[in-house]
Amino acid sequence: MSDAVLQTFPLGFPWQTQDPFLFCVYHLDHYPKGEENMGPDPKLLEGRNIGNDFTIKDGWRMYHGNTIPGFPYHPHRGFETITIVNKGYCDHSDSLGAAGRFGNGDVQWMTAGRGVQHSEMFPLLNQDSDNPLELFQIWLNLPKKDKFVEPHFKMLWHEDIPIIEEEHAVIKVIAGNYKGTAANDPAPNSWASQNENEVAIWNIHVDANSEYVLPSSKTLVTRTLYFYEGDEIHIGERKVNPNFGIALDPSQEVSIKIAHEKAHFLLLQGKPIDEPVAKYGPFVMNTQEEIQNAMDEYRLTQFGGWPWPYPDNVHEKEKGRFAQYPDGKLVEKD
């Protein structure tokens, strides 16, 4: 068998991705106790670059938030966001009138399509204990024919997502098919909605001092394994340290030997869309002219405006996990 490892690379902010994925970022913030307004004690904000705080200080960041950490309203066009919240909570609000609070294993799948505004805030709900946050946000491209589909908002609740328990591993199947177990349906216009594209998003956790075999794919997709937490691992004769990405040959199953700490991975794979990509901030199109058109249209229309009282909108502190859909449907989980 030839070496299944095509490349290894350090994980930055954001992580390096391959077509059809555009972007992946990992947020791990050890937020302190929250105040009544769901933000940290204002004294803890002193010395921070509020509004653009991406430097870890005391184990956490405010990002673009002023009083509550997170990302106040901003637009997207031409792709999808997939937000996996393993720990903590995210409050979503958007220009469609959709809203939600999700976390502790939930996943939000949002198709921006022709254009949407949304905010993603991280309310610190615990006032008597810390508020750790761990999440991935993944940008999955849309092909040219689907760049202008209607925006779509979908929740994949933790208790509904398939979780496979093997002898030494637990695999959360967010997208794709893992050894015959299919994930829940993604958004309807997604590149992932067509089985032949073999899009997979798996969160894999493997016990220390064990071995895990990653199955091969059926077709020649791009496949990247992100080793984001643990001790060293070994793939054949190659040692890989944590905080490294591994581009793999998808035609081979891969045996991974885990060292002295439990290993945590995110796998992204899919058939490349193989079209020109023009990116500018939150817009992803095929040409620079389309990017300019997106910017002009956003200035004129704000992609439907903002129906919420604040750009950094958060929901009532007492609310549990919920989703309010654009058609008025309300789903409450706890």
Give your account of this protein's structure.
With 334 residues, the protein is mainly β. The chain has two domains: 133 residues, Jelly Rolls, CATH 2.60.120; 137 residues, Jelly Rolls (Sandwich), CATH 2.60.120. Helix content is 4%, strand content 42%. The protein is built from one helix and 26 strands. The chain has a seven-stranded antiparallel β-sheet with strand order 1-20-17-22-15-12-11, with no helix packed on it. It has a six-stranded antiparallel β-sheet with strand order 3-8-5-6-25-26, with no helix packed on it. Strand 23 and strand 24 form a beta hairpin. The longest helix is centred in the C-terminal third of the chain and has 14 residues. It is globular and about 55 Å long. The mean pLDDT is 96.
Write the layout of secondary structure elements.
Elements (H helix, E strand, L loop, with lengths): L4 E6 L10 E11 L38 E7 L2 E9 L1 E6 L4 E5 L3 E5 L4 E6 L9 E11 L10 E5 L6 E3 L3 E7 L1 E2 L2 E2 L17 E7 L4 E4 L7 E8 L3 E3 L2 E3 L3 E5 L5 E5 L4 E8 L7 E3 L2 E3 L2 H14 L20 E3 L5 E3 L2
Antiparallel strand pairs: 1-20, 2-9, 3-8, 4-7, 4-9, 5-6, 5-8, 6-25, 7-10, 11-12, 12-15, 13-14, 15-22, 16-21, 17-20, 17-22, 18-19, 18-21, 23-24, 25-26
Protein name: Pirin
InterPro entries: Pirin, Pirin_C_dom, Pirin_N_dom, RmlC-like_jellyroll, RmlC_Cupin_sf
Organism: Flagellimonas meridianipacifica
